[in-house]
Amino acid sequence: MAKYGTTALLTLIAIDPAASVPLYQQIYDELRTAILSGRLAPGSRLPATRELARGLQVARNTVVNAFDQLLAE
User: Fold this and answer.
1) CB-based contacts of 61: which residues, under 8 Å, 6+ apart?
2) How far apart are CA 48 and CA 46, in angstroms?
3) Whether 15 contacts 26, CB under 8 Å
4) Alpha carbon distance 49, 62 (integer Å)
5) 35, burial (CB in 10 Å: exposed 0-12, middle 13-18, buried 19+)
6) CA nearest 4: which of 52, 50, 37, 36?
7) Within a 10 A sphere around the Cβ of 14, how many other Cβ atoms?
8) 52 vs 6, 13, 37, 66, CA distance in Å?
9) Whose CA is closest to 56, among 31, 21, 23?
């Protein structure tokens, strides 16, 4: 099982703080699209929520909400 570092994952995630879509939804959408397109292998380990939040410059709860939405799916 591959583990994606924050730097590698940041190349897959593009968020726009000015967009009307909430940030957690943007992160979820980007991760889901990356998984479905094969850019992110299913079952790959993602970085810790704190680490990813720091890299994206968002609150940790934003990343936690995105991860929770992925898990629910």
Assistant:
1) none
2) 7
3) yes
4) 9
5) middle
6) 52
7) 11
8) 6, 10, 21, 11
9) 23
Rounded to two decimals, what is the model's pTM?
0.87
Query: Would you state the pLDDT for residue 4?
Result: 63
* Residue at token pair 């790959």: 44
Look at residue 72 and tell me whether its pLDDT is greater than 60: yes
Angstrom distance (rounded) from CA 30 to CA 22: 12
Considering Cα of 22, then 27, then 28, then 34, what sign does the dihedral take? positive
Structure tokens at 37: 């397109």
SS3 for 45?
A: strand
